[in-house]
Amino acid sequence: xxxxxxxxxxxxxxxxxxxxxxxxxxxxxxxxxxxxxxxxxxxxxxxxxxxxxxxxxxxxxxxxxxxxxxxxxxxxxxxxxxxxxxxxxxxxxxxxxxxxxxxxxxxxxxxxxxxxxxxxxxxxxxxxxxxxxxxxxxxxxxxxxxxxxxxxxxxxxxxxxxxxxxxxxxxxxxxxxxxxxxxxxxxxxxxxxxxxxxxxxxxxxxxxxxxxxxxxxxxxxxxxxxxxxxxxxxxxxxxxxxxxxxxxxxxxxxxxxxxxxxxxxxxxxxxxxxxxxxxxxxxxxxxxxxxxxxxxxxxxxxxxxxxxxxxxxxxxxxxxxxxxxxxxxxxxxxxxxxxxxxxxxxxxxxxxxxxxxxxxxxxxxxxxxxxxxxxxxxxxxxxxxxxxxxxxxxxxxxxxxxxxxxxxxxxxxxxxxxxxxxxxxxxxxxxxxxxxxxxxxxxxxxxx
Amino acid sequence: xxxxxxxxxxxxxxxxxxxxxxxxxxxxxxxxxxxxxxxxxxxxxxxxxxxxxxxxxxxxxxxxxxxxxxxxxxxxxxxxxxxxxxxxxxxxxxxxxxxxxxxxxxxxxxxxxxxxxxxxxxxxxxxxxxxxxxxxxxxxxxxxxxxxxxxxxxxxxxxxxxxxxxxxxxxxxxxxxxxxxxxxxxxxxxxxxxxxxxxxxxxxxxxxxxxxxxxxxxxxxxxxxxxxxxxxxxxxxxxxxxxxxxxxxxxxxxxxxxxxxxxxxxxxxxxxxxxxxxxxxxxxx
Lengths: 448, 285
Prior knowledge:
heterodimer; A: mainly beta; Rossmann fold; Neuraminidase; six-stranded mixed beta sheet; 44% strand; B: mainly alpha; 8% strand
């Protein structure tokens, strides 16, 4: 009896020991590896031709090309050459053969088709697959008018961009700019609006007066710009639906450099008189005017922060022109640039993380960014004459004007990282580009 | 007479020219700018059509940790008659199988005393290209087995015996049937795997504040050193688009090793069969 008890105690002890060993083993199995390095490379993506099903519109043959062009031009994607595709269109609509797409090093795959909906509208269906994980990560059907096929293509590209980068897409946006063209011995400047890729260009002024620095209102219903129609250049507001122009404030001198607040209720601009330039705010609702800076110096190029609580501007109050930030209602300004040369035209990023600027140093011009607290200054590009930075609505890309010696001014864009410095094609010379905010969203969304 | 005719023609042409200029002018001035009109577009969301089995997604659905580790240490006489046609085992495997699994007959797997040959990647530690037709590992090692205290005791006794026996130890180690408790991954081994994963991690540098995100992924590794499943540990943040993008890039990085082996020592399987990888781009961004 005693012996059996002893055996039981021994067995219990052994079992406890076993449990201890097991827990030890389990503990040891929880191996951890910290991965702190990786590659920041373009995302390899295969975009197959969208199948066109019973739609007679030759334009639609370019539908896939618009998507490809958007994704390629943004610099974040590397497109797989369609000639390398192994799987054919016929089988693709059922189910992708992921192994075949991995074989050509595609991480992602886009398939789609274009149909005529019963109401006569176009119906575009597309799917985005993660080839490595073998899952569909996005699938949408967009319906719209046939004449809007290009915008629908941009929206497809936006959806792909957003799903793969985590940032909102900016392909379905517009750019307003000053189109400069020589007409005989005269030179004309007209305001023009085009898609962000240069398509659908339209002129909105006749070119009879010099116009500069157009800015979109946040709701895209109007633009503010500087017009030299009278002897004294002034800031005007133009309604984009009826082209009606309104003078902004009855100032006894030159007004320039307008910029809307992000809620669209205010317009801030510069007013120059007797050798001094001050910043003024116009309330577009109450039609009141507030002076924000008072010193006998040159304060100009004001721009609101995304929350409309602050204004960045450039000033020569410390000698050279530098960038300052002050409260939106005026008050003490804090200098944020201290580098060599002069800093001008600050433009706050829509995401709020950076302020883009133009820098002049030793006869060269630079476009750069700096954090609002004055840290992290980076110069992204340089040239003989580059200026007028303007952010894409997702705060990822900067549009600017480049004019090389002996050449027309042109619009260029550059990624926030400093890569993908790219010319934006225009019919004429182009300058003072301003990127639109995001376009109005679709009315409804449903799940299938 | 000729002069008169010429004058008439000239007047007519001038008239036409003026008319053209005038009509164009009218057209120009009356042009409305239908510039930025809201586009009526309806957007619907599609369900997934990809019906192929997805090990990662499957793995996310089941949080059950595999219980195979003790079983693997079962001595040959205990482990042996695990028939390859065990229904449970097949079900488990089907989660991990790519398309060609249905077409290929499951090979007979007999417990063999001789060591399993290590894959070629050991000799050539370079990154392999993905194979189209992947020969899947269908070893019975990953099968969960019922476990009881007595069998564990026997396993440990056997394990203790094998440690004492210098001849049988390498064989057990080679076959991956569990290492000794003193097994450790060396720093260089860890570094080798880390570099392998880093080479496959395409960090989404476009997103804002990417440097503040750390994604922890737990991966289960087959004995052939390919990744069987992966799950995000801090999954509660997946509603955040920024985190989701970073997490998916990390998942993609480990998923590359579903059909290519990690450079791990086969004899230390018990240590690396489950690994937590923390993807931290702080230094990179």
